[in-house]
Amino acid sequence: MLAEFAGPFGFGLSAFTLIFAATQLLQIGRLVSDQHAPLLAAIEVFLWSLPGEVVLVIPMAMLLGTLLAVQRLSGESEVTAMKAGGISFMRAVAPLLVGGVLLSVATFALQEKVVPYAAGQVTQIQNDALKHVSVFNQDLITHASLPGGGRQITIATAFDPLDRTLLNVTLVQYDVRGNPSYEAFADRARFEADQWTLENVSEYQFSPDGEVYVLPKEAEQKISLYQTPTDIVKRMSGDDPQQMSLAQIADIVRTGQLTDNEVRKYTTVFQQKIAQPFACFVFVLIAIPFGLRTVRGGGSASLGFGLAVAIVFVYYVVATVCSYLGEAFLPLAALWAWMPNLIFTAIGVARLRRAAAV
Questions:
Q1: pLDDT of 47-77, one tens digit each?
Q2: In the prediction, which pLDDT does 20 show?
Q3: Most buried of the four, 40, 150, 279, 321, by CB within 10 Å?
Q4: For the whole model, what pTM was predicted?
Q5: Residues facing 203 on adjacent strands
Q6: Helix (H, G, I), strand (E, B) or coil at 111
Q7: How many CA atoms lie within 13 A of 45 on its CB side?
Q8: How far, in Å, CA of 261 to CA of 345, rounded?
């Protein structure tokens, strides 16, 4: 059963990836022609963009692979032969269902481990290739939680992604009660060897009773800003939570510095990123009974592809509607994120039970 599934799955993975990659190719063309980026850098951007596309494509490929595999087995009466040999229908399709669960987990891991890193590489390459210093109209402000409690605010007037340097840095740390405990001013903060080095630093320490201690001025001071240059570029450029891991989204939400609309967006995406990878299993579940329809006169591959596109279209229309409802009713965001999976699972289980009873 898995051997029969592997070929159509590979075909679907390639076909759907090429469809999604077409838009990336247009963006690369504009990057080279309009912004005069080196061709090699544009190709790197394209390759690092693929993991994000593959996460969306794997469930679709699962759907198409299952449809075509079951269609062929059903059309050549192999399902009937298995039943005649004493193999129940549910036992026959069990490998596909298990494969759907395993690929759901693999997709989730790819989404969490590979996609955020790849998105960071895209950001870094684009900034390096365009030789652009990201100077914004307002100060750059980032927030981070401190390991022992409290929080830290880092303010800078500009960020140079080429030198990985923040300019005119102000660093303020607050204790768990929200009182300032440390403040530093530096001309520059450069990132090297996974650590920030402040240059020409003036430091001030605040005691719990309100006294201020001026520390000796230093030419250089190594310190943790709890942000990497890529994090800063992404955050200050209006980062897309779809390209972030669940941990990154949670860290940003916990800062308490998001607007109400941003909280709704980040929370909704957080819940969706938990639910969406399991569309692999849901699509397998719903594809099996649909694939049992015998196709007369050939054309099973084209019919399977068309049916897969139709099911995917309906699923993502439902997912989009549920996304808006999740943002509107934030306490139920988790439920609305899982609603497309629950609806299609119910349909798949009902149809699968009827098919098994035949």
A1: 888 898 899 999 999 999 998 888 888 877 8
A2: 83
A3: 279
A4: 0.69
A5: 184
A6: helix
A7: 25
A8: 31
Rounded distance, CA 204 to CA 223, Å? 14
pLDDT digits (tens, 9 = 90+) for 192-245: 766 788 899 999 999 888 788 888 888 888 887 777 765 665 555 456 788 788
CB 240 within 8 A of CB 221: no
pLDDT at site 155: 83
The string over 215-234, giving b where at least 16 C-beta atoms fall within 10 Å of a residue's C-beta and e elsewhere, is eeeeeebebebbbebbbbbb
- Helix ranges (H only) for the chain are 2-33, 39-75, 78-84, 89-109, 115-130, 229-236, 246-254, 260-275, 279-291, 300-328, 333-357
* The Cα angle at residue 52 between residues 237 and 310, in degrees rounded to 5: 120
Tokens representing residue 159 in the block: 């960020």
Paired tokens of 64: 């198409």
Below-50 pLDDT ranges, the chain: 131-138, 237, 297
Element (H, E) at 166: strand 165-174
d(CA 49, CA 23): 11
CATH for the 140-236 domain, from 2.102.10.10, 3.30.70.580, 3.20.20.100, 2.60.450.10:
2.60.450.10
The CA angle 173-246-237, to the nearest 5 degrees, is: 65
Please tell me the predicted confidence (pLDDT) of residue 161: 61
Q: Which two tokens stand for residue 50?
A: 């693929």
266 phi and psi, to 5 degrees?
-65, -40
Show me where the domains of the chain are located.
2-130+263-357, 140-236
Determine how many CB atoms are found less than 10 A away from the CB of residue 134: 14
The helix-helix angle for 229-236 and 115-130 (nearest 10°) equals 80
What pLDDT, on a 0 to 100 scale, did the predictor assign at position 296? 52
Count other Cβ atoms within 10 Å, centred on residue 192. 11
CA dist 352 → 24, 76, 347 (Å)? 38, 20, 8
Give the whole-angstrom CA distance, residue 72 versus residue 149: 60
